[in-house]
Design brief:
two-stranded parallel ribbon; MFS_trans_sf; transmembrane; Growth Hormone, Chain: A; single chain; 2 domains; transmembrane helix; POT_fam; 10 helices; membrane; 2 strands; disordered N terminus; mainly alpha
Amino acid sequence: MGLGFGIPAVAMAIAVVSFFIGTRLYRHQKPGGSPLARIAQVLVASIRKYDVKVPDDKSLLYEVSDKESAIEGSRKLEHTELLKFFDKAAVETQEEKIQSHVNPWSLSTVTQVEELKSIVRLLPIWATGIIFSTVYSQMSTMFVLQGNTLDPHMGPNFEIPAASLSIFDTISVIVWVPIYDCIIVPLVRKVTGNERGFTQLTRMGIGLFVSMFAMLAAGVLELVRLRLIARHNLYDYKGFLPMSIFWQIPQYFIIGAAEVFTFIGQLEFFYDQAPDAMRSLCSALSLTTVALGNYLSSLLVTIVTSFSTRNGKLGWIPDNLNRGHLDYFYWLLAILSFANFLAYLLIAKAYTYKKAVKVIED
């Protein structure tokens, strides 16, 4: 999946974009400016001080003396040992100590540095949501193509369009939310002692695991569909197969259950773990996985089509699905989901939660 090198690549992309922003905003923003400006300031300052040694005593790193941080709407954050290179931005040189004005593009507060570290720490968790969103996007793509071949009749005079079956995903969410809040959480709370039942990371992990079964259910249905076609020699049949479209309901229902765990857990996690003044940015970041999941789905279809149509073959997903192997595509997504889940377990185990500095009242 490339997660091993994908995260540094994403971090580097943010660094490049932020550095570009920094060159445009240089000397025109204060630490309380926009989140992207503050990220750019830390990156610029740390790069400018690449040869500066970080003191062993981290209390010597620059921070304002006030109870609150220099960033409006943000509490001070404790220094962490991760991503030590960025600590260079908070090293106060002798020249800066005697200056009356702090240049935010050459000196950042510890809290500002920790803001950037918090964002970078979230990126691996964020990346694992892309595969989940790829699975989620199948409801509006492959599930519809599969459903278009099945019998949509409900009674003698009514047909249900394949695209409208996504209503069962919505119904699943409506059913699972009260089940989760009223039954699962109280039961798990007795075991874990956690007020929320599961931790947010555990909740997301469960959703990632459950999402695999949506692809397995879709793949099994496709196998049954292809066997029906083979049994009755319906390869070139243009009408609806003698198989109800409602056999698709389980795969929609499973995705809805996975949503309740992953999407809701993801929003809560990004909001809680984001620095105080960057919660809107991080909430928006979590939602970008949906768009990227759609892009990845399109990319996978392109790759699969290119690979499976070699030597004049029809491929996995031809125009006539009756002669294709859509089940292979579902197995591929199931394998990717499982690999993504394993990667998530490692990432979640290594994750450290943010810590705010406790303010002692006078």
